[in-house]
Amino acid sequence: MLDDTDGWLICHECGHTYLHLTHLAQTHDMLSETYRAAHGLPLGVPLVAASVQTRTRTQWHAHADLHMPALEEQWKPNTAQKGNRPRSQWTSCDEQDSLTNP
Ligand SMILES: [Zn+2]
Fold first, then answer.
1. 13: CA distance to ligand 1 center in Å?
2. Which helix (H) or strand (E) holds 34?
3. How far apart are CA 86 and CA 102, in angstroms?
4. How many helices and strands, by DSSP H and E, does the chain display?
5. What phi and psi, each to the nearest 5 degrees, are found at residue 56?
6. How many domains does the chain have?
7. pLDDT digits (tens, 9 = 90+) for 45-92
8. pLDDT recorded at residue 100
9. How many angstroms separate the alpha carbon of residue 101 from the centre of ligand 1?
10. How far is C-alpha 50 from the chain's CA centre?
11. DSSP bridge pairs for 8
12. How many CA atoms lie within 13 A of 71 on its CB side?
């Protein structure tokens, strides 16, 4: 489980605290999925502190009337689906599959 101490995340690579782990690629040369696999974090665990998630969610809902038209304008499910890699190619997924299906 990702550590969340007093609203901050502790990076398992460098031990520093962050609100979101956006430094992984630049500082540790890791993708988020590589980081998750290296530290046994499930795909669903966000690399953002709970305090930031709550604030973002609250602000989004407060301005949903402004966001929804922009989202609907950008809504292109066929284009998005073409860009997705199959789940079987996710590094973290491979790790989890080998744990559950040895
Ligand atoms: Zn770090």
1. 5
2. helix 32-38
3. 21
4. 6, 3
5. -65, -45
6. 1
7. 889 998 899 999 999 899 888 888 888 888 887 777 777 777 777 765
8. 52
9. 31
10. 12
11. 5
12. 7
- 85 C-alpha vs ligand 1 centroid, how far in Å? 26
Q: Distance from the CA of 51 to the center of ligand 1, in angstroms?
A: 19
Q: Are 45 and 1 in contact (CB under 8 A)?
A: yes
Task: Return all residues near 7 (Cβ < 8 A) that are at least 6 apart.
Answer: 19, 49, 50, 51
For 96, phi then psi, to 5°, come to: -65, -40
Query: Which pair of tokens denotes residue 69?
Result: 């038209």
Using the mean position of ligand 1's atoms as its centre, give its distance from the Cα of residue 21 in Å: 7
pTM metric for this prediction = 0.62
H or E, element range at 33? helix 32-38
Q: Whole domain around residue 15: which residue ranges?
A: 4-100
